[in-house]
Predict the 3D structure of the following.
Amino acid sequence: MAVIEVIDLVKEYNGEAVVDGVSFGVEEGEIFGIVGPNGAGKTTIVESIEGLRRPDGGSIRVLGLDPISDRYKVTERLGAQLQESRLQDKIRVGEALEVYASFYRNPADWHALLDRLGLAGKERARYSELSGGQKQRLSLALALVGTPEIAVLDELTTGLDPEARRSTWDTIEQIRASGVTVVLVTHFMEEAERLCDRIMVIASGRAVAIDSPAGLVERIGTEQRLRFRPSEPIEDATIAALPDVTEVERSGPQIVVSGTGNVVHAVTALLAQRGVIAENLRIEQVSLEDAYLALTSRDGAPGDAESEGI
Amino acid sequence: MAATAELIRVESRLFARDPIALFFGLVFPAVLLAALGFLFPGFDEPSPDLDGARYIDVYTPIVLALGLATLGLVTLPPILGTYRQFGILRRLRTTPVHPFRLLGAQLVVHAAVAIGAAALAILVAVVLFDVPIPENPFWFAVSFLLATASVFSIGLLVGAVAGTTVSGQAIGMAIYFPMLFFAGVWIPRSIMPDGLLTLSDLTPLGSAVAAFEASWFGTGPSALSLVVMAVYTLIAGVVAVRVFRWE
């Protein structure tokens, strides 16, 4: 069952469409990722779902409700973590949770929530005393304190160090395991690949693909690449003649062979037969990041994706 | 209701954790009155400048008005600017509680501090300098509430348009000092020239001081003072609600 249904969403700023006819559905219990370059419209989409923005076109249904006209009902059941939102410097962690818990009819036990999010013992800490990772985990706690059915997390792990990011991933998986549907806006393909059941790729306000991580990779092809330095000279043409090889390139002393299917086996067999040792052999496969870059640059925003440093 | 009570509780704690706001909002009027009374020779004696009245009697209502203006124009707008700048109001919009309740909580906290500050200042005036208690307590209370409403509405309006902490401070200050002038902080109203006095009567703090004086030493405030304060409350309040931006 789709808990979020977005049909032909349009949002304009100053006459320019930043979201231009996006449609998607989020299924109950899944982790749905939204990825795309900066300014592609990701945040505008989730803020429309949260009721912070009024769409200029199309429709949004969250648990069958309109986020604007049924604001009260939707906010009871959807927890949001906003990008660039912070708390008062001098508020204590426990106070913030106590206040937010008072907003909801069925608040969670926030002490347990703090334990789960690795903030146990921080009840008395002031917001300004928290590290970046702790602030993010607190904002996650505030998003969950109303026991929502849906959690919308906008760049939760941006600005975190790799360790904090990984522990946050575990937390998100636990949240889903507890039955909450998660919508995750992220910049990190590794994060999307690890967590998301399905990913929507947004470029220039349009959805260019909605698929599982594996599905997105397959769209780009199942190409594999071998990169090695031959111990003895070997002719490019000999390699190129092998079945499944699509391209042979030289990169300094290295040979880069691209191909599909059994290309790895074919090349290594040839080298073994010739008595050539493949030094520094590396095998590369298309990653989600490659797929992402291909998808986002194909859609009229070339270079944008690369300069992102996703 | 639980949410509103919780918001008021936390906002009052946050106010108490800001030593500058606490000093200027709560104790400064009393401290100022004590300092004036003790440091200026003859401040608590009848003065020929004031037709035999004492400066301390004239300044007590002025200092109360100054206290209100400090809370409404110096403390309140930057808090609203900060809450907007930090995205705190925006974050509230994604919960079942409307951010209006946070503004309401702020106003309640500020009003409570205003009453506390006035009580402290009156205590100092009465105990240390033999200033009489207001002759007409009912009208004094009405005048004080109306003055609080008008000054806070203006502060809310400043906070409604101030996008950040700093712009809240700047706009608030730009209104604060002229208002203090018309309240008689530098030239008490009783010795203002007629033209200036008329202008003062039409400003929020000028009418506040006029109403305080009239209920303290006379029978009650003039209709003009009450109407001026009510009109400021209404206009500033309505405009503030209209132009308020949550982000």
